[in-house]
Every structure is written in structure tokens, then in C-alpha cells.
Amino acid sequence: MFFRHPSTPPPGDLRLVVGLGNIGSQYVHTRHNVGFEVADLLASQHGAHFRKGKFKGEEATLTLHGTRVLLLKPHTLMNLSGDAVVAAARFYKLSPERILVVCDDINLPLGRIRVRAKGSDGGHNGLWNIINRLGSQDFPRVRVGVGAPPPEMDMVNYVLSRFLSDERPLVQDAIKRAAAAVETWVTDGLDAAMNRWNASPSSGEESDK
User: Is 111 left (phi over 0), alpha (psi -120 to 50) or beta?
Assistant: First the structure.
């Protein structure tokens, strides 16, 4: 499915890291935008700067221990995130295993992160669109737990809501750990990232893959 134009630079060791979210001030710091926040933190930590790019979003590039990383924040709105991912994957001829997606997850407790090698969309529309457009679910992802909505709250309203003041410290810590998990994936590989970051930071429970 993927192809590279003859003028496209060879991919080398390039990795694509996609932070999912929605553009617009009304979505800043909402539960659905933690993927953007992880991407922003990675860029800030390594002196990279996001600019409007050719892959339907904002892009920043950095190098981690000799590996080039393209950070991508799709500007397609969440439900069409796959358009941006496929555009970048085709241009650099990247296999799904070299694409990592960072997103929110209502099925994880608030503040937990989970690194996965592949899997279904889990009800996440952004992941669903990426899987549909790539034609594969075999790409790694880092999921950041934002907690489940209360029974009386509509799901869409919940994920588009901002964190409560007492929730924000947990989320900030999770964003830092998610960014570190992305770095581990780039520098040490997927197994190392799962082993190091899938255990609960407080309970000491065993990591799982």
C-alpha cells in the first residue's frame, strides 16, 4: 500500500510519532487532546518546534540517539487522523511497525499509561480511522488513561471536557511518562518500552504486554 516518490529522501531509521487531538482553542487541555500534549512535551524537551507541514498537520523533527523522529499532530480533527498518518507513511514508505500513535483512553484509569504493540481501536475514533486508512492495526501505540465518564455523562462530552483541577497533576505525570515511553520505544525498542512503562507507577504491579 505504501510507496515513495522518487524524489523522497530515503527513510533510513526514521520513526513517525503521532499525537492525536483536535485543533482549536476550545480543545486545549481536554481529555481527547493528551496525545497533542505528549507530542508538545517531546518537542520541548529536545528543542524541536512544530510548524505547519505537508502531511495535513503540524510537524517537528528531532534525533534520539541517532534515530530521526518525525512528530506529527494531525489537523484533520480526530475522526480523520488516518489521513495525516497515511500521507506521512506513504511519503517516507514507513511500515506500520515504525509508526507509534499516542492517544487518550477511557478504558484506563486516570493517570495510567499503557504501551501496546498492536490492537483494535478500543472504541477510539482516531485509532479506528488510522487502522482503516492504513489497512493494518499492527502499529504500536501509547495510551494515556483519562478515566471513564460518569454514568450520567455523554461520552463525547466527556472526552471533550477539560480535566478537573485535582485530576491535572495525575495527568501531567502521565504525559511525562508517556513521553518517556515514546523515547524508550525509539532508543531501546518496543519490548523495553512495555516492560518499563506498563506497570502501575504506584502499585508496583507486574507489567503486561
Answer: left
When pLDDT is averaged across residues 162-190 and rounded to a whole number, the result is 96
Instruction: List residues bridging with 145 in a β-sheet.
Output: 105
Q: What predicted TM-score, i.e. pTM, was given to this entire model?
A: 0.89
Placement of cell 531501546 in the chain? 188
Q: Which CATH superfamily is domain 15-197 in?
A: Peptidyl-tRNA hydrolase (3.40.50.1470)
Instruction: Name the active-site residue from 32, 65, 75, 124.
Output: 32
pLDDT tens digits along 93-120: 999 999 999 999 999 999 999 999 999 9
Round to whole Å and give the CA distance between 193 and 128: 23
Residues contacting residue 18 through CB under 8 Å, at least 6 positions apart: 35, 39, 72, 73, 74, 81, 84, 85, 88, 99, 100, 101, 102, 130
| Active-site residue flag, 32 | yes
